[in-house]
Amino acid sequence: xxxxxxxxxxxxVISTVQAFQYMELVKYVDSHQEQYVETLRDWVAVxxxxxxxxxxxxLHRMMEMVAQKLRRMGGTVELVDIGEQELPDGQKLLxxxxxxxxxxxxxxxxxxxxxxxxxxxxxxxxxGWATDPYNxxxxxxxLYGRGASDNKAPVLAWIHAVEAYQNxxxxxxxxxxxVIEGMEETGSNGLDAMILAQRDTFFSDVEYIIISxxxxxxxxxxxxxxxxxNCYFFxxxxxxxxxxxxxxxxxxxxxxxxxxxxxxxxxxSPSGKILVPGxxxxxxxxxxxxxxxxxxxxxxxxxxxNKIGISQLMYSNKVDLLAHMWRYPTVSIxxxxxxxxxxxxxxxxxxxxxxxxxxxxxxxMDPALVKRQVTDYLYSVFAKRKSPNKLKVTMVIxxxxxxxxxxxxxxxxxxxxVKRVFDMDPDLIREGxxxxxxxxxxxxxxxxxxxxxxxGFDDGLHSQNEKISRYNYVEGTKLFIAYLxxxxxxxxxxx
Amino acid sequence: xxxxxxxxxxxxVISTVQAFQYMELVKYVDSHQEQYVETLRDWVAVxxxxxxxxxxxxLHRMMEMVAQKLRRMGGTVELVDIGEQELPDGQKLLxxxxxxxxxxxxxxxxxxxxxxxxxxxxxxxxxGWATDPYNxxxxxxxLYGRGASDNKAPVLAWIHAVEAYQNxxxxxxxxxxxVIEGMEETGSNGLDAMILAQRDTFFSDVEYIIISxxxxxxxxxxxxxxxxxNCYFFxxxxxxxxxxxxxxxxxxxxxxxxxxxxxxxxxxSPSGKILVPGxxxxxxxxxxxxxxxxxxxxxxxxxxxNKIGISQLMYSNKVDLLAHMWRYPTVSIxxxxxxxxxxxxxxxxxxxxxxxxxxxxxxxMDPALVKRQVTDYLYSVFAKRKSPNKLKVTMVIxxxxxxxxxxxxxxxxxxxxVKRVFDMDPDLIREGxxxxxxxxxxxxxxxxxxxxxxxGFDDGLHSQNEKISRYNYVEGTKLFIAYLxxxxxxxxxxx
Lengths: 495, 495
What we know:
homodimer, about 500 residues, alpha+beta, 2 domains, 14 helices, 20 strands, Cyt/Met_Dipeptidase (chains A, B), ArgE/DapE_CS (chains A, B)
């Protein structure tokens, strides 16, 4: 039996060795910053917009680039065929392959699987970007470009974390797997089936799944333990067989736009209340614990207002605002396809107009029920108008919310990693956005999941001038390096 | 003193000579049909979209082409500088020059001035065109292309009418002037001032103004004696300083789209009734004479419905329908700029959205008053929402309606020309669309105006697959030839 001083001595040696290794890794990361930025530049240059079918070749190219990068690092890499998607007109389009990779297969170590995506939201210079969205531009340490923060830099940070261990000839503390997809921004088409298919193969030895597809709430690092889901709807009103001159025909036909505006206006009250019957009733009530947690979170209402650039938020106190950001549903009307949307004037009666709107999902809402509630409601509202036009409501995305246990060892390891890199405790936050795959991973594989963001609170995801700061990108890489180390200490039995 | 038989004989000879000349002209036109189509092809190929500032160079080129064509025919041609337009951002952009031309200056003859425009509405293949909108395509005798009917073919038909007289060495029965502009589709910016400036020069010897910027109501030729005006509005709601991710921010901000949809929905009732207070009260009541006239017009409700492709019109009897097409106001919502309008899904909260809508004007509405009624109403509706967003309502086009006297000699000459070419009486119709310049010509120059359309009832102006048929283009050219002859008989004193 070992006596206490000897044990302490051994522990000290281990601790010193580990601390030393970390500093080596930090030095490596700092000295490779420019290379990291250049690789991000190459990735951002690929217009991998998954919502635009015309850009599909770029998306395929993007997946190849990811695979190549991982192959060069010696990973066991596969490009997994996930089939085709059916377009509204019945045509079939090849989905971008999913990249899987594996580094290490030591059965005595934990195995983590990092999920990320390399497709992006649409972006055009004319939308109001200050720089070309597909040309990564460094302005005062911020790297502007579509997909920079969502989600290309975080994916690269994970890859670079593994690479740092490799290039310093340090053994990886855990086995690392990657699942990188290219359809996240449009609902991860095909990924659910792929996960299900590989549940007992690729995912069988995975203990933990790590997702870094979100952002901090402030300048303080954060761990995310919940996300909202999303039900995305198309409401199409079709009238004349083609667009009509509003002078020549105006006054003789009930215009589809009038009908569409009319039904959209019944979705939300002026103060933002959802008017679709049954939606709000399903929401889990706010608990005292949540109230307390929100109350303690570092969140400055004024800086949030300034960031958005508005004079008044929907709620004037922090807890209400955070609750409505994270754990209450909301409706957004994104736009209308088929109507006149260019600058200038056009005197047209659009023949077919399709509104796009979505309802964020929270526990205990059920997308299948929401679909029925919304469609039933809109059809009944439309019927009252007695219009000769035709309404078609479809739900094109139905993603569930996700919620984790913050006392899980995964989160404890996360807190330790944040402490090591940033010398502070992370905020425990939720995410208003949707990472549907978290819920799928949980439901299908039964594995525990942690969300560990490195994106800044002001990165402008999905909007103009998306960016990630060099600070978040580089320190984020260090965080991931530290996390691979911390997560190795979780006993395999805790799975 | 001449005796009766001699007089009759002389009259017979004159009549025979004239009839012979007309048949020569008809033969000339028929044998030049392919050249007419080719010239139209050249003109349609120019993307002279006046609403898109990026196409302005094309518009300038179009005006040069018109001037060159008229110069080659020996006309006295000028390209009149009408200054600049100010864009919403304060930038200045050169307006397309106005082409004026003169053929003949015989003081004993009447002088007519033909007005037309060669700018077009926007058109993109993706909007649902079956053919490239800027490549004139002949399908079964219909010539498809943007601007084919509105208004390039009618302008060319007038030019070819003059050219036919010239090339057959026949004296023009009247002096002919042209005023061809390039800003009609966006409100004839700069033309009013030009007409005012040249009232006592170019326009001083003009007796009659002829406009062929409209279409027939059915397969029967028509003369148009009235048009609706148009007040075109932008309603801009501005909130956050940039677009936001609807997941991340949804629930914390009052979204501009919600506000915009809310105020748009207060413009029109589901049955098409204008809800802006005061608008309907200004409209002149339908007279018994009008009722009788409409009752007699050849108009088939079923073929109108089929053409549009809808199951039910806003009114089920002919008189109500024609009245609402021609002499009642109507509101059309054309679209929204700044929101998501592409195919696919985007989870965005648009930061600034601008609705485009217009209200057709009829006697006795006053655009200045309508502007006040609409803006006051929308601001008051918006105020009730207590939104932190900002609303800005602007009227960007304010065009008055126009109405002519159908018993005027100009119209009698028109009836005679139609009779000669088509062997039938024309319908006397009004136009739901707007030709604001008619009203300006009337107000500024005091000249009498006739609208003599040659476009088909199903030409699809302002919509996809605009076309003119070879029949209307060619027979229309003959109609103009005949009209130049008929109008020469109006006594100069009737002006």
